[in-house]
Amino acid sequence: MDENSGRSQAAQHILNQAEALFTRYGYDKTTLDDVARAAGISRSTLYQHWKKKEALFGAVLWRALRAFTVQWLAHIDADPQGGTFAGMFRIAFEIILKQPFMLALYKNDMRLLGSYMQFLEGSQIYVQRQLTQQMFLAKLQQAGLVRADLDVEAAAYAFNCLNYGLLKLSDMIPAEVAPAPERILETVMVMVERMVAPPQPGDPAAGQAIIREFAASALERLDALEQMFKATPQPQSQPQS
Amino acid sequence: MDENSGRSQAAQHILNQAEALFTRYGYDKTTLDDVARAAGISRSTLYQHWKKKEALFGAVLWRALRAFTVQWLAHIDADPQGGTFAGMFRIAFEIILKQPFMLALYKNDMRLLGSYMQFLEGSQIYVQRQLTQQMFLAKLQQAGLVRADLDVEAAAYAFNCLNYGLLKLSDMIPAEVAPAPERILETVMVMVERMVAPPQPGDPAAGQAIIREFAASALERLDALEQMFKATPQPQSQPQS
DNA sequence: TTTTGACCAAATAACGTTATTCGGTCACAT
DNA sequence: ATGTGACCGAATAACGTTATTTGGTCAAAA
Q1: Does residue B25 fall inside a structural domain?
Q2: Touching check for B197 and chain A: CB below 8 Å?
């Protein structure tokens, strides 16, 4: 169904290399030469796919966000207790842990994004995260899957703090004194569960439905932003001048 | 009772200025000239009190840690619900928020500690924090003030993450989208409370007793470390050579 | 059409040198 | 005793210059 599958396949290969390099060295310290060399192509060829370095990074970022959402959705569909907030929280957390780029995005920020930040400008990544979780919790609450007396805004904020701390502290505390990851995760899950679970449990299926709808809309929003992120080169349009 | 109260008074004044400067500019970027000028004395006079820059910073650090512990203890004694873990957590949090130096220490920024880090060496500040909270939770659990089935090590870790995230995210998320501090604090307190509170509440007085004992031993340990921290100049001892 | 090496201007790293500052000491004044 | 200005060596900042790299373009080769 993809007319130029060869081209897109090549692009994916390049993006893989670029993602690894960006993750390791950050935006500023990763040169297009590095990317081209790692991908086994010439630097000029990169410009056939993305006309600016920003566009390349944007493509990596966009793809990672999309992959995260897709995986999240898949796991939730598969997981029997994916309909609860805590289960969802856990799945998101585990996926991030497995994706180095997303992990770096979450905890390091400034080094990974480097001077790409000014491109994102007012995009305000943490603000976005906060608002998204807020809205999400509110929807679950509306459906009776989250206790009615929960202050969703404050709770979203607290969960974000917890999330951030979990990711960040993991490389500040040596493994010897930190409990095993599974125990931490288990404990955090219990904490989240006790915090949001309503007195009588709601319908998990309803939860999954909300999450599906939510993930779908997230994907739509992402796709709508594709242009902004990737800024593809002139395909064959624009018979200008 | 202090034979040289004038001297110690002067030292406190110097420490005040030094603390403010260290908090604002960090260890490396704060010069002894700045401190001396701010304190209205000559730089040489500083050496009458502390023989190295490290010693000056150590004195500031030590004093801040001590003040924190003392205040903590006082508030807990005064607060009617100071005997619960959540209440204690709240008090510690609020005190830290009010002490810029401690706040900077927690948020950590290598900027504050700068090259003083190598002096602390294996002191491992986060490790210490983790172990302390662990032990503390365990004691409360033993006294029945924390539910018996709580994984204290993992919980201590999670609380540390939460704490860190709360302090750190506060300047990453603009005030417009963040809920009011009181609401956040309230929500976090509920979360902590639900996490650790045993089915039937224990005796608050017992909790306060444990905390008092704990704070007392912390003060003792601190006092024992005073030499290491402050490294006072040669008083009149050492009739050597 | 796709890929590439050569090319350009701007940004950045490297370098050596010069000033300045900084932590720390000491003889001297009070 | 207590405080201070002058002083020292080492570290750091400032500076200008030179090399190198980097993002981006283009005409030519495959």
Answers
A1: no
A2: no
Pull the structure tokens for residue B54.
Answer: 């490290």
pLDDT tens digits, B194-205 = 999 999 888 888
Mean pLDDT, chain B, rounded, equals: 86
B135 inside 8 A of chain A by CB: no
Residue A111 resides in a domain: yes
The pLDDT, as a whole number, for residue B96 is: 94
Contacts of B27 (CB under 8 A, 6+ apart): B57, B112, B113, B114, B115, B116
Name the residue range of residue B225's domain. 60-230
Q: Is there contact between A53 and strand D, defined as CB under 7 Å from any strand atom?
A: yes
Q: Angle formed by the axes of helices B85-98 and B204-224, to 10°?
A: 40
Q: Locate A36 and state its tokens.
A: 């081209």
**Which nucleotide's C1' atom has the smallest distance to the CA of A43?**
C4
Q: For tokens 């444990």, what's the residue?
A: B210
Residue B123's pLDDT is 60
Is B218 part of a structural domain of the chain?
yes
Facing B151 at nearest CB: one of A130, A178, A187: A187
